[in-house]
């Protein structure tokens, strides 16, 4: 009897190990699919132009060369675009989180009358929108064209992030804790600032990353709204204009740079634009997984 039980346990363990290997292989393949293209771009940005033309650069730089990065750092327009992107991303993230927290907290409290109707109204905006033309007309009528606020205000609120925040607050902030604070004389803003926000650091860090990455990678609104004020073009829009160049000549500020292959400069610009957001992630990584799980499952 003991021998059969032991054999059954061995078979179950072997079956579990098989699934475990399959899961690890799937995760490994998915990780490599995301990582290898970026390594290839970095290798191209650090290689000499002749080797890139000959398609000899894959996952390791060939003919190590930093000339493309020197050209980028020497171009005042790219550095100015980087500054604009940083300012817009910071303001956009702060404003988006303030709106999201202030909207999600009351919607997560059962004493708010009509909270279900309000939640449905917010959800409606996730599936239906006016489109690009009405949004452009609205921005134009508000006098926001060619201003930095046209890159911040129109998309500073996300209904998807609101629902995640609402679910997280409903499942992680006990009603009894709020009631005890109200008995001690605390108002709603005092409860929000001293109790809710300190206990919601994981989900706040997660949504802040969502807002920041989404704003950093967006260039379409700047393409529509920033026409005459060239100094307000964010870095991603600058990259867009570089990438769509079909010729082998790139016009940088105050100089004409001749390249036999523009791929090196394109790759260098992509790496240059990606590094800032990568530097932010390690500081909030410890909150990220906890925050995603907290807002994804309602207890």
Name the poorly predicted regions.
250-260, 295-299
From the alpha carbons, calculate the radius of gyration and give it in angstroms. 25 Å
Task: Give the proportion of residues in helices.
Answer: over 70%
> What is the element string, with H for helices and E for strands?
HHHHHHHHHHHHEEH
Strand content: under 5%
CATH topology of the largest domain: MetI-like fold
Instruction: Record the strand order, biggest sheet.
Output: 1-2
Number of helices: 13
> Total number of β-strand segments?
2
Mean of the pLDDT scores? 79
Q: Biggest β-sheet, characterized?
A: 2 strands, antiparallel
Instruction: Give the class-level CATH name of the largest domain.
Output: Mainly Alpha
| Distance from first to last alpha carbon | 42 Å
Q: In CATH, what is the homologous superfamily of the largest domain?
A: MetI-like
Number of domains: 2
Q: Any idea what the shape is?
A: globular
**Annotated CATH architecture of the largest domain:** Orthogonal Bundle
Helix/strand-derived category reads mainly alpha
Describe it for me?
The structure is a single chain. Helices cover 71% and strands 3% of the residues. The chain contains 13 helices and two strands; from the N terminus they run ααααααααααααββα. The radius of gyration is 25 Å and the shape is globular.
